[in-house]
User: Fold this.
Amino acid sequence: MSSEHDQKIEEQHQPTAALRPRAPRLKLKLSRSKMNSILALCAILISAASFYATYMQAKAAQEQVTAAERQLYAETWPWLQVSYSDYNIEAERAHMTVKVKNSGTGPALIKSMHFAYQGEQYNTLVELLNDCCSLNAYRDALKEVQSDNGDINYLKQFGWYVTSNPNNSLLADGNDLVLFSMVRSKFNNNLWEKIGEIAHDIEVNTCYCSLLKQCYTVNKASEVKKVANCSNLTQ
Assistant:
């Protein structure tokens, strides 16, 4: 009984829901100018985010283009080297050869090749060998003997030479071009020895371009230097 009586007394002293004090409500009042400022700030943030996204897309696209250009450059890069040898291993005989080889990954258009010896400049290797070793005199003597005796191939027996002009030649990657070739014989020993003595002292400078019209110069030591073009280039 007492517990029920106490409970009724407690309920009578509790305030009804209608009489309880209400929590105060917070009212945010924004003026028109403040609202416009907030909207403007939101617009700026959205524009900045859009600009950043566009920038990242453009940067990614540029990186892809750069990577593609590098790959194309690597696949079309020519590298010319001039070499000299005085013995043919396969034929097992003395055979002098001066040649230019493309050791790169793309074709090379040879624009010009210049030679130098003891401070003198030459446009062709034949001019240099004639100046130092009287190559033309040897040629004329062989031709005269051959014309008088057509039944015998004196050019082959005496040791004829072969030359080529590399200017404006297109040299594919992995290929070579013989600039000078001569088989040694007992009739051309003097000429052979003269050429052999100076061969390693001849400077060679070449200017060539790739299929992408990127041009380079290379010397006898195979040192490559990029240049704007080969026009009027003095080696």
